[in-house]
Design a protein that fits this description.
little secondary structure
């Protein structure tokens, strides 16, 4: 990791700033830092509101508690960077590489993460409400406790990602790949899961009330104690392929038919 002094000198060398390093907060709002090599830079607490960091190299950089709202980070390389409690509100991160980045409690509300790579990223308790993650990659990312309400995850790779306790209310997950994902106790109220792949996913105790499940693949999914009341377009065929429906909440008609034709689904997994 570069020191603060070395980071400042890197900015001077690239004609981004001039003079001696400020003794207190750095204000780089609206500054053009595109295409610059800032790998392992120390930019903690820096004001980067509206800054242009398009294509910038920030591998392993430290930006915790910085303000990047409305910043352009499209196609930036931020592999393994640390962004704890950072504000990305309304930022453009289209095509950015944030794989294995530390993003706990970061605010991505209404940000554009279209086709961004967040595989293995740490997003515990992050706020992605209203963000666009269409076509993004979140393979094995960790988003437990995250606010994902009204977020667009359509066609997104969410395989083996962790979402325990996350809020997906009114989110769009149409065509998303959630195979092997941990969705324990998540809120999927009124979410769109049409054509999504939930093969082998853990949905135990999930709230799926009002969820659109048209064409959703549920093969091998754990729906123990899940709330499936008022779910839309849910069929006997879909539910016949799940691992368990033990203690799940279902409409009386569905439950009666399933108990008759597939009684094994209602046995406790430990039996």
């Amino acid at each position: 990791m570069l020191s603060k002094e070395q980071t400042w000198q890197r900015l001077v060398d690239n004609n981004i700033v001039q003079g001696s390093m400020p003794s207190e907060g750095w204000n780089l709002s609206g500054v053009d830092i595109s295409q610059v090599d800032l790998n392992e830079a120390d930019l903690r607490g820096v004001n980067l509101i509206g800054a242009n960091l398009s294509g910038t190299q920030l591998v392993g950089a430290y930006l915790s508690q910085s303000n990047l709202s409305r910043a352009d980070l499209s196609r930036a390389n931020m592999v393994g960077a640390v962004f704890l409690i950072v504000n990305f509100e309304n930022a453009d991160l289209k095509g950015a590489n944030l794989s294995n980045a530390e993003l706990g409690q970061a605010n991505f509300s209404n940000a554009n993460l279209d086709k961004a790579n967040l595989s293995g990223a740490y997003l515990i308790e992050a706020n992605l409400s209203g963000a666009n993650l269409k076509g993004a990659i979140l393979y094995k990312a960790e988003l437990s406790g995250a606010n994902l309400s009204k977020t667009d995850f359509s066609e997104t790779d969410l395989t083996e990602a962790g979402f325990s306790g996350a809020d997906f209310s009114e989110a769009c997950l149409k065509g998303a790949n959630l195979s092997g994902a941990d969705l324990f106790i998540v809120n999927l109220n009124r979410a769109d899961l049409s054509e999504a792949n939930l093969t082998g996913a853990n949905l135990s105790e999930a709230n799926m009330s009002g969820t659109n499940l048209q064409g959703t693949i549920l093969k091998g999914a754990d729906l123990q104690e899940a709330n499936l009341l008022e779910s839309h377009h849910l069929t006997i065929q879909q539910l016949s392929e799940v691992e368990t429906l033990s203690a799940a909440q279902l409409s009386p008609d569905l439950k009666k038919k399933l108990e008759s034709d597939y009684p094994h689904l209602f046995k406790d997994l430990e039996d």
